[in-house]
Structure formats: C-alpha cells, structure tokens
Design brief:
Shape: elongated
Strand content: under 5%
Number of domains: 2
Largest sheet: none
Radius of gyration: 28 Å
Number of strands: 0
Number of helices: 2
Order of helices and strands: HH
Helix content: over 70%
C-alpha cells in the first residue's frame, strides 16, 4: 500500500511539473525569425572582431618576445 501511494505521488509530481512547465512555456515571448537572425549576425560579427583583436595582440606579443630573445642572445 505504501509503495502504491509513493508511486502515485511521484506520478502526480511529474504530471504537475509538466503542467506547470507547459504553462510557463506559453508565457514566454519568443523572438521572431527576424530578431533571431539579426542577433545571430551581431554575435558572429562581434566574435569575429574580438578574434581579430586577440590575434593581432598575440601576434604582436609573439613578435616582441622573439625580438627580445634575439636581442639577448
């Protein structure tokens, strides 16, 4: 008897959780296709800019370190 009640509680909790989740998902304001595309482009462009900056800084520091090593030796 106790096992049956425990199983029912677990099932009821799962059903309640699913219903609450379903209700919350209906409240979400999803972005439009245009917004998603625009924001994706922004992320790609910003990532490319940051990558270029980091590449340039890394190349510069590598060159400076190489020049310093050549100067010392």
């Amino acid at each position: 008897m106790a096992v049956v009640k425990e199983t029912e509680k677990r099932e009821n909790a799962l059903v309640r959780t699913y219903r609450e989740l379903s209700g919350e998902m209906k409240k979400v304001i999803w972005p439009t296709r245009q917004e998603t595309t625009r924001l994706t482009i922004v992320v790609v462009v910003v990532s490319a800019i940051i990558s270029a900056i980091l590449f340039t800084a890394d190349s510069l520091f590598s060159w400076l370190l190489l020049q310093l090593q050549n100067l010392v030796s």
